[in-house]
Write a structure and sequence with these properties.
The protein is an alpha/beta fold. It is about 50% helix and about 15% strand. The protein contains 17 helices and 12 strands. Helix 12 runs parallel beside helix 13. The chain binds NADPH dihydro-nicotinamide-adenine-dinucleotide phosphate and (2Z)-2-iminopentanedioic acid.
């Protein structure tokens, strides 16, 4: 780890992500001399390449704006690079390197042939007009297109990149190359999207939770859940939780949290989905609309009492203080919908208190899994129906759960799902790298 720190100064998120994997696989890898001889750990902690570029676009006032864009192609040992694009003011090389690193093991866990990558820009889509978003996306793709392809690297959405952005990006790729091909996932249905892709990450995380509960002879029905975020992952997780008769007690955005004392209803969720996905409003507006919803400006949901916490906003959103508040309220399960939402200190608190944590690379893998299925549908020029895709998603999440459980079993019979996910995700990538020899 000292080498990783020295080679990546000021890249805290990346060092944190590598450190977590290294910590979890350390013991397991001890007697794998084949990995040691081939320096697999050192090689896996170094991205294949990082492409960075300038993105210039014109705003509605005719001012030119200069932004940075990146694609981190982390590892393609088991398939083409695959992973989302994030547009947010907080994006930098460290954040994208950590996300691409995590994505590599997540994609491995899905069992589908996908390597790991991530990209994005420090462009903040909040408050931009559709025309500005379009011009930005076109400029971004004008640089990115030469580095991607259906068998090379297949981006998708992430924070700040949803179906609108994917549409503009895909249109520009098609315009420049003259090729209609499955180069992006998360597309809309009329031009090659997959049913269930919008829902897949949130639904998949709830399927994982359901499996985790079933392994302890518990059920989701009647459980109370606090969620952060109110984007793609949070709102579809909430939908599936309500379907399963769990109680959704909170949602949030970067300005504050809404609290729903008796649990969100399906009608309220419909209203919020329209607010967030179509009107691009703020979560506080739900409290203006409904009497039983209270808004807490500047607050996260982690002080609230519940059975399950599902962080679905961003990295490091649960710090040590939040973890102590959660364990103080006897939270029993944490399901990471967001990528690396728990700081290392917070994780220590959860481990010490016996909280069962579903790690991001397992719990939120449903999104990229259905992206993999979108690639398959594009390749065979077919659309599969919703039922088939939901069945496949359920099967993949159950399989990931079982793999993590098996590899994460502790001597005392408990299960460390994070360790299990890191070991199971790592092994397939490492074995493929071994097969290729020195490169
Ligand atoms: P969206 O852009 O749809 O929503 C993001 C949500 O998180 C918004 O409510 C946003 O609030 C909030 N948020 C973002 N940044 C911050 C911040 N710094 N502090 C507090 N709140 C914040 O993104 P997704 O739902 O797609 O992604 C959420 C998380 O899930 C990310 O970690 C992403 O990497 C992960 N993920 C996403 C997948 C997908 O398929 N989309 C797949 C797997 C993981 P605001 O509007 O105020 O910014
Ligand atoms: O973090 C993630 O897994 C995603 N943002 C989804 C990636 C994808 O290629 O669907």
């Amino acid at each position: 780890m000292q080498g990783v720190k020295d080679r990546n100064p000021h890249q805290d998120e990346f060092v944190q992500a590598v450190g977590e994997v290294a910590e979890d696989i350390y013991e397991w890898i001890q007697d794998r001399s084949d990995y040691h001889n081939a320096q697999i750990l050192q090689r896996i902690a170094e991205p294949d390449r990082i492409i960075s570029f300038r993105v210039v676009w014109e705003d509605d006032d005719k001012h030119l704006q200069v932004q940075r864009g990146w694609r981190v192609q982390n590892n393609n040992a088991i398939g083409p690079y695959k992973g989302g694009l994030r547009f947010s003011s907080g994006v930098n090389e460290s954040v994208l390197k950590f996300l691409a690193f995590e994505q590599t093991f997540k994609n491995s866990l899905t069992g589908l042939p996908m390597g790991g990558g991530k990209g994005g820009s420090d462009f903040d889509p909040h408050g931009k007009s559709d025309a500005e978003i379009m011009r930005f996306c076109q400029s971004f793709m004008t640089e990115l297109y030469r580095h991607i392809g259906p068998d090379v690297d297949v981006p998708a959405g992430d924070i700040g990149v949803g179906s609108r952005e994917i549409g503009y990006l895909f249109g520009q790729y098609k315009r420049i190359t003259g090729r209609w091909e499955g180069v992006l996932t998360g597309k809309e249905m009329p031009y090659g999207g997959s049913r269930m892709r919008p829902e897949a990450t949130g639904f998949g995380a709830v399927y994982f939770l359901r499996e985790m509960l079933a392994a302890q002879d518990e059920e989701l029905k009647g459980k109370s859940v606090i969620l952060s975020g109110s984007g793609n992952v949070a709102l579809y997780a909430a939908q599936k939780l309500i379907d399963c008769e769990a109680k959704v007690l909170s949602l949030s955005d970067s300005d504050g949290t809404i609290e729903i004392e008796d649990g969100l209803t399906g009608d309220q969720l419909d209203w919020i989905q329209t607010l967030k996905f179509e009107q691009r409003g703020r979560i506080s507006e739900a409290a203006d609309e409904f009497d039983d919803i209270t808004y807490h400006e500047g607050k996260q949901p982690w002080q609230m009492d519940a059975d399950v916490a599902m962080p679905c906003a961003t990295q490091n959103e649960i710090d040590e203080g939040a973890a102590k508040a959660l364990t103080g309220n006897d939270i029993a399960y944490v399901v990471e919908g967001a990528n690396m939402p728990t700081t290392a200190d917070a994780m220590d608190v959860f481990r010490a208190k016996g909280v069962t944590v579903a790690p991001a690379k397992a719990a939120n893998a449903g999104g990229v899994a259905v992206s993999g299925l979108e690639m398959s549908q594009n390749a065979e020029r077919m659309h599969w129906d919703r039922e088939k895709l939901d069945d496949l998603l359920t099967e993949i999440m159950t399989d990931i759960h079982d793999k993590c459980r098996k590899a994460g079993e502790c001597d005392d019979g408990s299960v460390d799902y994070r360790r299990g996910a890191n070991i199971a995700g790592f092994e397939k990538v490492a074995d493929a790298m071994l097969a290729y020899g020195v490169m």
